[in-house]
Amino acid sequence: MRRILIDADTGIDDSIAILYALTSPNLRVEGITTCFGNSSAAQSTDNCLRLIRLSNCGYEVPVVTGAEHTLDGAIETAPVHIHGENGIGNVILPESSQKPLDMDAADFIIRKAEELDGELIIVTTGRLTNLAEALQKDPALPKKVKRVVTMGGCMEAPGNVTPVAEANIYGDARAADIVFRAGFHMILVGLDVTAKTFITEKDLDGAERYCSEKSRGAVAYIREALKLYFEFHRLTQGMVHRSFVHDPLALLIAEDASLGEYKMLRAGVEYQAPAFRGMILTDNRFQSELDHDEIAVCVRVDSDKAIRRLFSVFH
Ligand code: RIB
Ligand code: CA
Hints:
It is a single chain. The chain is of the alpha/beta class and 315 residues long. It has helices at residues 12-23, 41-55, 80-83, 105-115, 129-137, 141-144, 167-170, 173-180, 191-194, 201-210, 216-237, 247-255, 303-312; strands spanning 2-8, 27-34, 63-65, 120-124, 147-151, 186-189, 198-200, 242-244, 260-269, 280-283, 295-301. Alpha-D-ribofuranose (RIB) is lined by residues 9, 11, 13-14, 37-38, 125-126, 151, 160, 166-168, 246-247.
């Protein structure tokens, strides 16, 4: 059983990742912190509370609202045609009676890391602002967690905000630079693999046909929320009845890293030069066997296996 904390900007793909995590028997979600990105952090929190209710996970999952802006105070959220007015494809899920914890998200991350004594895996599916703030409060944090798995970045694939930058890294590039250089055991799951992995209408047909009674609501929600996401992929990528799989892939890899192949890199993020903001910078001189602080960048993934596993938890 892997014990994870999810830090999300709960949009459509984040919500599928969260439902997966709450349903998988191999994962225990110790908490969720939220961040601006696909919507405001407050909206992301509300989405998480509703998703927890929908999941029927059977245990309590604390949710804490985090950063509403970048480390430098900028507020930028995704255009509504990607994730909808409410971040989850304009689907209205039943309200939850659960309230978010009234505490600072960075403090919550630090507290959980200490409580779990080296067992915690942090999975980020949005900007790295909350994690950078946690590091600023506790620079020893990398020694206290097992691993960080981050959906973000692009090495060879084109970016999705600028030609060189992916949204989660671009969205708070300075925070990403702080996290990349902090010395975490980090896995980066970026567009090089997430834009080669697809959810299709056929996968949804199968999920609906085989889902358990407990997961029927979750699967119906996924189908409904993906309508807008499929449309966004049709308009921007010419893809028909399908979408990339960004955030769920990070969760799948956090659960089982053997789904991917990795290249070890020492990396930082450009945050000063506007044209290159969010671009990952690598130092090719370092020697992985001698040096530390490198990041495992996922360069290949078994996409078929990943998608099978993604939907199998709802059976
Ligand atoms: O670039 C893809 C990422 O940006 C995903 O995490 C998506 O949810 C958005 O935040
Ligand atoms: Ca996200």
